[in-house]
Amino acid sequence: MASDLLLFQISSVSALIGMTLGWRGVMTRYSGFYDLPTAWSNVFWGILLGGIYGSQIYTQVIIPNIEFEATNDTVVNPLNLILLCLIASIAAHFILRRNRVRSGSSQTTSGWALGLAVGGMFGMVVIYAVLRLSDFNSRLVLTVALLALLAPRCEAIISSYQGHLMLLGKKWGAILRATMWRCGYVVMFAYVLSAPIGWIFILPVMLIANRASENWIWDSIPKAGKKQLRKIWARQARERKLRRMSDNLTRQNPINESE
Question: Which member of 65, 106, 168, 221 has the lowest number of beta carbons within 10 Å of its beta carbon?
Fold first, then answer.
């Protein structure tokens, strides 16, 4: 029991670190230009949705996949995978279509916050499964680190994309596309548990989609907000440039303390 509790704590902390880094990477960049209380409420809903979604993925997909790799007897039912991802996408759709989200046109940023929480819970479940079923080695440490960092961000990208499509008025298109990406996401993360080479396919797709997500969030900001953001970023760039110049001058002309 103590060992299970310790594994649960490790998986929880790892997932929280990944969620924090995912928040700092995007949400802090646009801080002040989206509805922060609404984003935090979506984190709460994401924890609830992610807890149910992650536990079902664990029992219906992760465990059967691990058993199949070990015995070649149990095959993952693809209908379970599609159904779970479809239900998760529909639930995300209803969360992102609430009045407080639509009134501020914040489906994209709210989707990112929602996805971070859902992905964090999913990552926690997968990390817990890995820790329980694997021996401690460098490969295990690398797998846990990558799961903690990428699981929340990948789900955040998918939910942000779903919110972006909803903002464009594509309702069923948003649900179906998000379902397709979630199916691929779950399959690949289940695959890398037994074949780490799968990270080669996950990382490039994630990096490309992460760059596109900044455009989705940028498009959701009103014109006045974009103009103000450009001014802030330009001022910050000038301050960094002046700071670097000051540091260079200090290194080139050190102060003689004896004088």
Answer: 168
